[in-house]
Sequence to fold (1017 residues):
Amino acid sequence: MMTPPTPTPSSLRDLLARERVEEDDGAAAAAAPAHTTPCRASRSPRRARAPSRSRSCRHASPPPPPPRPLVSGKGKKKKEMDDSAAAEDDGAVGAVVAVLSAYAGRFLKDAEFRSALRDKCAACLAPAAVDGDDDAAAAAAGRAVLANLELGIESIERLADDGAAAPRDAKIRSLRNSIRLLSVVASLHSPLPSSTTTAAATTCGIPNSHLAACAQLYLAVVYRMERNDRVAARHMLQAFADAPGLARRDLLPDLWDRVFLPHLLHVKVWFAGEVELVAGWDDADGRCRRMKTLQRLYNDRMDSGTAQFAVYYKEWLKAGGVEPPVPSVPLPSVPGNLDVEGKHSASVRRSSINRNLYNAVFGTAFELEDVKDAKVDEETELVLDLDVVELNDNSVSLKTEKLAHSKMGLQEKNSRSRKEGAIPETAPTQRKSYSFRLFSCQGDISKNVINHPKMAKKEVVSVEKEMDNNELTMTLERAISVVSNSDSLRQCEDAVHEVARACSTLQGDPSLVNSLSCASFIQGLLEVTFTSKDDAVLESAILIMGKLVLGNEVIRQLVLNADPQLEVFLRLLRSNELFLKAAIVLYMMKPKAKQMLSLDWIPLVLHILECGDEVQSLSSVKCAPKVAAFYFLDQLLMGFDVDRNIENAKQMIALGGLDLLISRLDAGDARESRHCIALLTTCIQADGSCRHYLADNLQKEPIVQLLVGNQKKASAAALNLMSELVCLNRTTKIVEFLKELKNSGCLNTMHILLVYLQQAPIVQHPLAAVLLLQLDLLGDPLQYSVYREEAIDAMIAALEHSSQSRKVQEQCARALLILAGRFSASGEPIAEAWLLKRAGLDDSLSESFRRTEAFKDKSVRAEEEKAVEERLKKLALMLLNSGGEKFLMALSNCISDGTPSLSRSCLITVTWMSSSLSPLRGCNDFQPLACSILAPKLLDSLSYDRVLEERVLASLSLLNVVRHPECMEKVFPLKKETIHSKILQMCLGLQRSSSLLAADDIETQIISDQEQHIISM
Fold:
């Protein structure tokens, strides 16, 4: 039995695969001791304390995802649950990989980002001076390590600057050397606990952990260059695990904010609260010492938490791995008497376990715990004063059970009571800032400003009817003042109810909006909305905001400025009861993508789209929440830069957004279908592999219906989606899709396309003509077809007028590549690579073409090649018979006068047509026309100043043309010096041994024809 061949040194993919296996083995060895040591059982997360209008409520870390239920009973049900959980994990893993690899991908596209990253690494890795002769050898070895790191970084930067222009072999060698150099540096800091290398070890005065982090960062870039996103993400996470402090503060602060900060917000809130408390100390020396202690504790806990979650995500990204236990990051323990003075901050101590960063929130209750069931954390020593307020018909009685309190707590309580007892009833004052105020966590001892006597519903209705406008206005002004100024959550909640009741009673009163439009009231309303846990209060707040923003652009901007990151609305969208109404109010304000930066937006918006069919009534507005969902998705997938748009689209695909859009497309109206089609096209452009799933599962009739009518945007979107879906990597799949498109329901797709072609602007003609031509190709090409004639005429007209519009040139180039019918698995055109391979030029093949060919079964490949050849021959005959000289003339003019992309596409078209209609295949009608029309432009393409690929394509076309006996004299006059001159020009133009095959064939053909001509004479 023969042994498999050893991989060649230039096989970068084999090298990457071996290093990935070695990395997985090393990580498994590092994790092995952890499984043998019993871990401390983590306590279930505590519920939040009773609601208070507090800053801590805003910044507290969100709770963890609910544990997956254990299913007992039949094994089949348990298996279904396990499969569902596995699918959920796969989606979350894909989203994590998308975020991390997209960040590494910025290195390849942004020169400023590369320069900034290089400067950051240089600043962190400045070597220290070495004292003494004993350290000379160590210093020399250290300088060698730094040189390795610098060489690896420079090599990667050169590759990123060169891009696709770098030769393939040189790129492979450079990447391989970079991996080896950086791997040596990364190995200086071992994650194994038993390793002799410690975190304090240094090289030339630089901590080895810093060197390893920089090396891991550039290793992530290397694997991103090779499109191995999962391994790139793991190297990026390892940088945070090796040097968490350096990575979060200096190297990758923005990525840390997105991935790790949500898990550690409770530590940040704790630190802010303690700093605020210590800042009020009179003792300057004690304050300075405490601040240093707090800063040290904060940095240590942030660094350890970052490292824990980096390892957590890295373990989760292992191939075939399941989600590991989520780490717990408790708050730091403050030494001395600082705990006594900072007990009020203990209310923010919550479990650090964040919900799955990319888990869908469908059906998950978030921050809706019942206040009556709230518990105090067992680790805190804070003892509260519980105020129980009982409201009678005409009086307010107060029962206070004093459990225990500190001297400071009593003073704060009394000062708050005096302050709340003197609430002004005048108009609210303007705030100086939009920061959230610190609410009191204790009950209101003074008399409530707004009294709610108990009475029957009928009596309430009668009282409201009898109340005149003056009394209602006075009550409204008092409620506005409370919301604007009071620090009592209970008072503010009652006031919000009063304002909502006034909005319902005084509908149409212009003075109402004027009274509510002050910035202090809007800020206070947002604070109450963020803090309160009463659904009735939140619903009233939503009603008020809807009333305010309706038709008032100034108030819309006030609300958006007061909540720039839409944190208040994110909390409302997590509510199981109110998220639909909250979505409508937010849609009325039309926020932009720059305000929707949270990672939770995609799952929340998909939840709205899934449940948003029923029309919601809000004030005088009636709207379906799904309309808001489409607006939000449009912002999230098209409103950022290219990288962030792609990242969000991949996250939506990972969370099952394609199926949701497919169902909406099938059941929706024309407007909804247009939104779905535009979003699906964006998803295809972000991840081309999903087009196969859409081609199989998408109903074609709703897409074709959008071509009918005068809706230009909808028709253009439908045509663009169809042109994307036809770019499949198998001819059989393309034919199957075209048949489904042609026979979609009761519609005559070809007739609809013909009418659209006659009415659409010229920029849409190329794609429409190509689709119509491919549908006509399903029939008999020998029979006359008006669809074929119109499609070819439209294509010729577009090529002739392409010089007038760059957009038309781009569409023509794309249409010609679609016509060739050669695509990779991700939908990239590979017709040029296929032709170059036939010419023996393998070095210029794209990576997508190599992947497509490498895994194709031989029998399947032979069957596919046969189908492609038959299809191209039929198509070439159709173009020649119906287009004739006009079509070839249009191609010829675009080869010389078009943009580089259009010129290349026309040259590719001429090459495959000449190959399909070669005399070797029994076709002799194409060559005479090509001699007079195309040959001069093809000879010009052999010039040495043209790129190699164009010269090879031109030589192949000429070879197929001169095989015809009549074409030899027209192309090459039978003079010896002329023949040698042309051959020399072609050989000098090609300049590559692998490409001289075509030139040699032409020379042999010319000399053979010359000899036959001389003999006949």
About this structure: The first strand starts at residue 202 and ends at 203. Strands lie at 202-203, 206-207, 386-391, 396-401, 616-618, 621-623.
